[in-house]
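Morning. Coffee machine broken again, so started the prediction first thing and wrote up yesterday's gels while waiting. Chain of 257 residues, entered below exactly as on the submission form.
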Amino acid sequence: MNMLEVDGVGHTYQGKDGAYTAIDGLSFTVGMGELVCVVGPSGCGKSTLLRSIAGLLRPSRGTVSLHGNRVDGVPSDLSVVFQDYSRSLFPWLSVTRNVEFPLRRLSRSERSTRAGEALDAVGLGGAGKKYPWQLSGGMQQRVAIARALAYRPALLLMDEPFASVDAQTRFELEDLLLRVRREQDTTVLLVTHDIDESVYLGDRVLVLSKSPACVVADLDVPLGSSRDQITTRASEQFVELRARVAGMLQGGPVTVR
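Came back before lunch.
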């Protein structure tokens, strides 16, 4: 069963200098429990795609559906994790209060329970009383992920969530996402510029063309559910697939074997 359906979505911005088409004819699906990565050239329209899926932008044409229902506004069961964790957290709120923020309609006890479970899931069970500015960048992004998970979304959108941290922290957060996704059966759509990351994390990789973006390839990633940063990245399948994705992004052949 598909969690998300994107059907012929395109968007054209109107400006003083004329019209600009960012995306055009984008069509793909994301099944329940899948982790799908989207990779494409810089400026190809990935942000426009995410805003359309999140209901923050009404596309000029085509439809986005969640659970089979057309998205005409911000869905109530969707969360987003952004690249810039320093702007997505409230520095005057504790870690626990940051995680509880989208849960204001729940009872105090339910908010506390969900926040505690989410912080435990991302390895920050003892950091609830601290403030974001007291944490490292990687830990701040863990808080942002915990906040999204505490909301218990049907679909988790991630917009280059690990791009602003160092390489070692990035690897740790990638493995954290795989573990949490496996334990909670979360459906994830992740946008990244990093080819290796898209192959390492994804069940599938969607390769986009230059703007106006369309899907040029939808690749299955046959690496299994158990992955690690050393063995997986050194495997023949990983190396072959990342080379194919890189070739497509550079305008090479897109034929899928």
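Residues 253-257 have pLDDT under 50 and may be disordered. Going to sketch it on the whiteboard this afternoon.
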